[in-house]
Write a structure and sequence with these properties.
Low-confidence stretches: none
Strand content: 25-35%
Distance between the termini: 11 Å
Shape: globular
Largest sheet: 10 strands, mixed
Mean pLDDT: 92
Number of strands: 12
Structural class: alpha+beta
Number of helices: 7
Length: about 190
């Protein structure tokens, strides 16, 4: 799991303070803009993360990202393409998930009772990322009745930030509200 988080490329992850785990906390989507404005933050992007009931009595790790997120541009592709701006009800499946569910480009996958058209197969290196379904954030929020809610926020600092300055940035983000700022290792130690 730590390797999967590191593969995404975060410096820190912001979660709800006191949440029992990554799946149990929720953040308001508008806090992303506040975090993005903290001096020392290069970029911040929200994510909704959950296990979604799917076909064949399977639960699939579903991840929703905003359509403008930098994370889409870094997705390693085995086949297909990324979502186009404004495109709805589409999914990128990790290669392990696609193979296990016998899905290919043009097929549909059911997540939370909704049909998503498979437009891409990813080729991450870590096991956890190879088993995920990536979808537009707005679709996942709508399907879960969690409009404008996130599970976590990916944060990257400006380049060459010294440790003391990184600590100041983390403290400034935590001062925004009831949030915890952690590295991937720290998240797993506390989860």
């Amino acid at each position: 799991t730590r390797e999967g988080m590191d593969e995404i490329g975060d410096d820190v992850i912001v979660t709800q303070r006191g949440a029992s785990d990554l799946f149990g906390g929720f953040l308001p989507q508008q806090i992303v803009d506040l975090i993005d404005g903290v001096p020392g933050v290069r970029r911040a992007t929200g994510e909704l993360l959950l296990f979604a009931p799917s076909e064949r009595s399977r639960n699939v790790l579903a991840i929703g990202w905003p359509e403008t997120s930098h994370l889409w541009k870094a997705v390693p592709m085995r086949d297909g393409r990324l979502p186009s701006p404004g495109e709805r009800r589409v999914a990128l499946l990790g290669d392990n998930l696609a193979d296990a569910m016998e899905k290919s480009i043009g097929d549909t996958i059911e997540l939370l009772g909704e049909k998503f058209r498979v437009i891409g197969i990813t080729k991450y290196t870590t096991v956890i990322n190879r088993g995920t379904a990536l979808v537009p954030l707005s679709d996942l929020q709508e399907a879960t009745y969690r409009q404008r809610q996130l599970s976590l926020i990916h944060v990257n600092f400006i380049r060459n930030l010294k440790p003391a300055e990184a600590a100041r940035v983390k403290n400034a983000i935590e001062a925004l509200g009831r949030v915890t700022v952690s590295t991937a290792s720290e998240v797993l130690q506390n989860d």
